[in-house]
Specification:
Length: 245
């Protein structure tokens, strides 16, 4: 859900404080983060992207419910993904479709054991494949915005598991730095660039300290700034997004 610049200021105040470095409280994750996008123009590419966005949304919802520990809701989303799978066959290449099919089977197996985090860790990888399959020219914002979303989700899950996998957390944080390094070149708003950079710096510091609560907090902030970035690119299509009439 897109937020106003007031939200950006509020996030900046949080990030630029010492909260990330000193945060040792559990931060709850807002479920079902994906907002409904304005309807794209009627074209083959846009319709294809709309179907992919629906599938991505199912996985985002699943992750949100996983982080809330709602195994029944997670199971419902796994079923929804199974029902949506046939619609993806004609719009994904064979390799991607087969991979998502295998991932869905893994989700079903994990969900049947009420392993919500195991289910979510597979769902977030399916989300990444779906987002990368979208037509670039018809996206409302650059792919790197969605990859920051992917990193934020994955870090939130990894920081919530019983046994912290620091090597995977570090690799995921490094990937998010790469996404921002590319994306930052398209963001001309200095305050927004500083905001996202502050989040990335906080994340990097938390990983270096192996501060799991700091990672969880930074991941939450990363997901929040994704909404601000989506708004920025909708308002500034020349920077890499498209405007929907």
């Amino acid at each position: 859900m897109l937020k106003s610049r007031t939200t950006a200021v509020a996030i900046a105040a949080l990030v630029l404080s010492t909260a990330i470095a000193q945060s040792h409280q559990s931060e709850s994750m807002t479920p079902a983060k994906l907002a409904q996008k304005t309807s794209p123009p009627p074209s083959t590419e846009a319709n294809r992207n709309a179907k992919l966005a629906d599938a991505a949304s199912i996985n985002e919802d699943l992750i949100g419910f996983s982080l809330e520990g709602k195994a029944d809701k997670v199971a419902e989303k796994v079923v929804a993904m199974r029902e949506a799978l046939p619609s993806l066959r004609p719009i994904l290449n064979a390799r991607s479709f087969e991979t998502i099919g295998r991932q869905l089977t893994e989700m079903e197996q994990a969900s049947s054991k009420s392993d919500v985090f195991g289910t979510a860790l597979v769902a977030v990888e399916a989300y990444r494949i779906i987002e990368n399959a979208m037509d670039t020219a018809s996206r409302p914002s650059p792919i790197e915005v969605s990859m920051l979303d992917y990193s934020g989700f994955k870090l939130s899950i990894l920081a919530s598991t019983q046994h912290t996998d620091w090597s995977t957390i570090a690799a995921t944080a490094n990937d998010s730095d790469g996404s921002w390094s590319t994306l930052g070149k398209s963001v001309k708003d200095t305050s927004l660039r500083n905001l996202v950079q502050a989040v990335q710096n906080g994340l990097r510091g938390a990983v270096e300290r192996q501060d799991v609560h700091g990672v969880k907090f930074a991941a939450k902030m990363q997901l929040e700034v994704v909404d601000v970035l989506e708004q920025y690119f909708q308002r500034n299509p020349a920077s890499g997004g498209i405007v929907h009439q």
